[in-house]
Specification:
The chain is α/β, with parallel strands linked by helices. The chain has helices spanning 2-9, 39-50, 67-70, 85-88, 94-116, 133-144, 156-164, 169-184, 194-200, 228-237, 245-250, 268-280, 298-310, 326-335, 353-360, 390-400, 406-420, 424-431, 433-436, and strands spanning 26-34, 54-60, 75-79, 122-127, 147-152, 188-191, 211-213, 254-259, 287-292, 317-322, 338-341, 365-368, 384-387. Strands 3-2-1-4-5-6-7 form a seven-stranded parallel beta sheet. The chain has a six-stranded parallel beta sheet with strand order 10-9-8-11-12-13, sandwiched between helices. It holds the Pfam family Glyco_trans_1_4.
């Protein structure tokens, strides 16, 4: 009796289609985060759908989604219930809220992956976050006869070490957990860089499943601006630039753009410091720096910016923070002079998506460079410049934002455009479509 009861509770299993059947390839795509702020997982979903596959895209429904997703009949978005507000506030210690939040996530994930979404052939999971995602994904893949694919964007434990300190007890636990999951869970691995693929094969991960590298590529929305008139029209329309559009168009004022989720793994004081040094050098061109994005440390840095301004340390320099729609953000990148990236890879082997998008928009970058995979994307003297300190960044700004740097900037722009012309669709069709059994 008890056995029958347990069987009745088990989720339905995926049954492979007979050869030659027309049943579409089904993929569950899971990100334990805001779907709207997970560009790569949205692109995966769009790509599967384009090839006629069926997608259940599972995650938190917070920011607005990529327009191609909302319009696709092949994609069903399934929203996970966010943890109760009491677990998200910082009033209780992490040692209490952390485990409770994980329990909540275990429950909602099992309910969604195993019961609400239909059984699928594939389950594609973004890592990190790894806890509890990887364990639940593995459990569900066994129960439902689904093949598990982990898309390694980074490592959860290195991010945790960055926010909680390397000696926090959870760091070692999550490292062991992540390594074990990598070894036993997936059918296939996807990594964002070749450096990460190489690392996953070594100690302590020792992943034995096949690993494919799928570099991030800009989505179609990021494209270089065609005509100066188009650039002018946008600069005159955007509230952040409309008053200085003429000065930017004439090349007098330089427009810098950075985007961030304002987390501790990006040290914006480096950028602010570089701007202060730039101002001290009395460079010929004024700068407008627009920093887009939302996140925990935004208010802290806004205060710092205000302080520097009232202290008179930023003459000729304007720094604005903004939150733009995807369309405006893409247009802003294509209209700017230089992109700034402060991504400090916690794992040393991931790459910043924002630089990929900047290249898609034909925008050269100055990017923090002290990590192993940096050279897989930014090529010195070709499409951008790397820096490790604020004085190095200040030197780059002085060089590229001067009249004598115009030629170099133009050359980098051509290189950025070239790198950005390699698109997501081509890369995905080549690397992943065959893996999922989707033809073009
Ligand atoms: C996601 O949120 C949007 C806007 O709040 C809403 O219109 C949409 O129905 C939600 N989707 C799901 C799957 O809950
Ligand atoms: C070490 C390892 O897992 N190598 C695999 C990488 O992926 C290719 C293609 O999927 C496999 O053939 C390798 O065995």
């Amino acid at each position: 009796m008890g056995v029958i009861f347990v069987f009745a509770l088990l989720p339905s299993r995926y049954t492979p289609q007979a050869a030659g059947s027309r049943q579409p390839v089904s993929v569950q795509i899971l990100v334990l985060g805001d779907i709207g702020r997970s560009p790569r997982m949205q692109y995966h979903a769009i790509s599967v759908a384009k090839h006629g596959g069926h997608v259940d895209l599972i995650g938190y429904n917070e920011s607005s989604l990529h327009p191609d997703l909302s319009n696709s009949a092949n994609v069903r978005v399934r929203a996970l219930a966010p943890p109760p507000a009491a677990l998200r506030t910082k009033s209780l210690p992490f040692l209490v809220t952390g485990p409770l939040k994980v329990l909540w996530q275990v429950g909602t994930l099992i309910w969604m992956l195993a019961y609400q979404a239909p059984a699928a052939k594939w389950l594609l999971v973004q890592n990190p976050p790894s806890i509890p995602t990887l364990a639940i994904a593995m459990l569900v893949s066994i129960l439902r006869n689904t093949q598990l694919v982990i898309d390694w964007h980074n490592y959860g434990w290195t991010i945790l070490a960055g926010t909680k300190g390397p000696n926090h007890p959870f760091v070692e636990i999550s490292k062991v957990y992540e390594c074990v999951m990598g070894q036993v869970a997936p059918t296939v691995n996807i990594t964002v860089t070749a450096a990460m693929a190489a690392q996953l094969k070594e100690e302590p991960y020792k992943v034995t499943a096949p690993i494919v590298t799928l570099h991030d590529r800009p989505a179609a929305i990021f494209k270089p601006v065609k005509a100066p008139s188009e650039r002018r029209a946008f600069l005159e329309r955007l509230p952040e630039t409309k008053d200085v559009a003429a000065s930017i168009m004439s090349g007098h004022m330089k427009l810098l753009v950075s985007s961030t989720s304002w987390t501790p793994d990006e040290d914006f004081s480096l950028f602010l410091d570089a701007l202060v040094r730039y101002a001290e050098m009395e460079a010929e061109h004024p700068i407008l720096a627009i920093i887009t994005g939302r996140g925990p440390q935004k208010a802290h840095y806004e205060e710092q910016i205000k302080l520097l301004q009232t202290q008179g340390k930023l003459p000729n320099i304007q720094i604005l923070t903004a939150w733009l729609s995807m369309e405006d953000y893409a247009a802003l990148l294509s209209c700017a002079d230089l992109g700034i990236c402060l991504h400090m890879s916690s794992s040393g082997v991931d790459l910043p998506m924002k630089v990929v998008d900047m290249f898609g928009a034909g925008l050269p970058v100055a990017a923090y460079s002290k990590y192993a995979s940096f050279g897989e994307l930014v090529k010195e003297n070709e499409n951008g410049c790397g820096f490790e300190t604020s004085s190095e960044l200040a030197a780059i700004l002085v060089r590229l934002c001067s009249s004598s740097g115009a030629d170099e900037l133009r050359r980098l722009r051509i290189g950025a455009e070239k790198e950005g012309s390699l698109r997501w669709d081509e890369e995905w069709d080549r690397v992943l479509a065959p893996l999922f059994g989707l033809s073009s």
